[in-house]
Amino acid sequence: MTEEGFQVAMICWSLVLIGIISVLMRLVKEMWLKPARIRSALWRQGIRGPAPSFIFGNVSEMKKIQSSNININQKPSGVKRVQHNWVPSFFPYLQQWEQQYGQVYMYSTGSKQHLYVGDPKLLRELKLHNSLDLGRPTYLSKPMQPLLGDSVIRANGEEWAYQKKIIAPEFFLDKVKGMVGLMEESTKAIIKTWESRILESEEGIVDITIDEDLKSLSADIISRACFGSSYSQGNQIFAKIATLQDTLSHPSLLFGFLNFRFLPTENDKKVRSLKKEVDALLLKLVRDRQAESQSCGTSEKDLLQMILESAASSTEMPSHKTDQFILDNCRTIYFAGSETTALAASWTLMLLALQPEWQDRVRAEIFEVCGDDDQLHHCLQDMDTLRKLKTLTMVIQESLRLYGPGVIMAREALTNMKLGDLDVPEGIHIWTFIPALHRDPENWGSDADEFKPERFENGVSESCKYPQAYMPFGYGSRLCMGQTFAMLQLKIVLSLILSKFSFSLSPNYQHCPVYKILLLPQHGIKLLVRRVQ
């Protein structure tokens, strides 16, 4: 080898060595120095937790605790054994550690450091914290990208603030109340279907898996209210989004563990394929609307039109990102806007089927406040009259306490910040397990596992010792933007359905709530449905 060749080889090997050293330094920083800094900052303030192992953190212990609990607590129960204390089967390690280390503790999943918060006083500080420094954890939101894109749910910082500015006003009360007619029309279509099935039955009673029908109903409402299209036009989108949701639902998503795979799995390929199909369907919806606007204009000012106009006039967004921005937020609204409300309505009817006296009380209130069928339409159009449905509101609030669709609330400190007396280090992931919080006997009383809507007789502020610990729609600046829309839809749908039908549990019903991004009934919600006499 010539001297010149030797020098070139030495330079190449030096570059390789520098590259290897830089990778090793980065690994040391991410796997050791950064976690040690975060844990040390919390330790000095008296925060404790299970001791992590190097690289793996507490993942092995989490899996061990989960596997030892799953067979005991997650067996489906029949009609006679419906219990609301299914919470121990969900992330039992979180509850076990809370008993050991208190309501605030730390734990690790790989290089990710977590701060579990179940203390109402600290939750109050979280609720009051409205800066952009508290965002969605990147490690959690990244795997959800095929489902949610880079939409307002996943975004952080200024990008999140910009997207919220566009979307949030469309869910203010002055806009939402204009959607009541669509909600009523869509619900009446489901009512007619159920009435036809009852008339065809010999005994005037039918066994219906109501969560499936309510999902279709909610999808139709969100399609028409936000996109100007009916569910029949968008059913392919909803079906593929549901499949995508199921494909992405796996516990390892929550561990935040490093992924050393280099080749895509069959599941990865399926996710990518579904994402492309959903994008193609949504893009057709967008292009059809754009063509309609260009050819003859449109008087529709639904959410899709607002997103299109905002994206077209934006000086903050590069033109090549416009289409993706539109698709991402359409996909998010289809998923978050329809699925969560349908689940809330389904769980509420299941609870009322178990509690016929409360079902009767809600129905009596609807007739007392709104009158007969002819008057019900006018009643539902009047926001002041709807506010008089206090018993229905109490039932919805209690249902959201026991069976709220949201299960995990996760945030990431994007910089060093202060929460009350606690100094929170940058990079920590703040976790709250909502079902456990909503069943804390110290806050809700010894009957915390029972369905008692009277807790909310004087509103949320008087429902428990620490009302800030009631968070079915999240907390802080990232409180669910669709909360007003969801509550109004629940009142409209449940008022119309309960005025026409009575419900009891089907003998085929198996009670088995499961976590699949949201709280789902694994075997569906099967109810016996009769016409109200």
UniProtKB/TrEMBL annotation:
What stretches pass through the bilayer?
6-28
Please give the superkingdom of this protein's source. Answer: Eukaryota
Q: Which residues bind heme?
A: 480
**One Gene Ontology molecular-function label:** monooxygenase activity
Q: Where is the protein localized?
A: Membrane
Q: What is its main location?
A: membrane
Keyword Iron annotated = yes
Which cofactors does this gene product need? heme
Q: Which Gene3D superfamilies match?
A: Cytochrome P450
- Record GO cellular component, one term: membrane
Q: Which InterPro entries does UniProt cross-reference here?
A: Cyt_P450, Cyt_P450_CS, Cyt_P450_E_grp-I, Cyt_P450_sf, Cytochrome_P450_Monooxygen
Q: How does it sit in the membrane?
A: Single-pass membrane protein
Q: Name one Pfam family in it.
A: p450
- The answer to whether the entry has keyword Oxidoreductase is yes
Q: Which UniProt keywords apply?
A: Heme, Iron, Membrane, Metal-binding, Monooxygenase, Oxidoreductase, Transmembrane, Transmembrane helix
SUPFAM superfamilies associated with the record: Cytochrome P450
- Family the UniProt entry places it in: Belongs to the cytochrome P450 family.
Under which name does UniProt file this protein? Cytochrome P450
Q: Which organism is it from?
A: Prunus persica
